[in-house]
Design goal:
Layout lengths: L18 H12 L5 H13 L23 H5 L4 H30 L7
Helix pairs in contact: 1-2, 1-4
Length: 117
């Protein structure tokens, strides 16, 4: 029986990070230790499409084990790689957004205003 040989297409299954998600992430960076962080986290979770049980939906890749040394949880803790990947994508998006905003400000300064003749 003849069959078709199909070559899989290497598609990117992750949608790009939206500007709203990046702005929420930037706000979260400014209020790390306040109650507003969890409100922003809920909005960000919805925006990036994370599941309800993926809490927190982002994890700082530079942060270590949050559990106390010598405890059962400390020994068995594993980083959430999906949350860390989201953090990296949002961090990269925030850098690009800030760079674009700087370019717009510089371009606005560079354009001299004409005085009517």
């Amino acid at each position: 029986m003849p069959c078709t040989r199909r070559t899989p297409i290497n598609r990117q299954h992750k949608p790009p990070v939206s500007e709203l998600a990046i702005r929420l992430f930037m706000k979260m960076q400014r209020c790390r230790n306040c109650d507003r962080w969890w409100d922003l986290h809920t909005e960000l979770r919805r925006e990036v499409g994370a599941k309800l049980w993926e809490r927190p939906c982002i994890e700082d890749p530079h942060a270590g084990n949050p559990e106390k040394p010598g405890t059962y949880n400390y020994e068995r803790w594993k980083p959430d790689e999906k949350a860390r990947a989201r953090w990296r994508a949002l961090e990269q998006g925030a850098r690009e957004l800030r760079r674009r905003e700087r370019e717009v400000r510089r371009a606005a300064k560079a354009i001299p205003e004409h005085e009517p003749a």
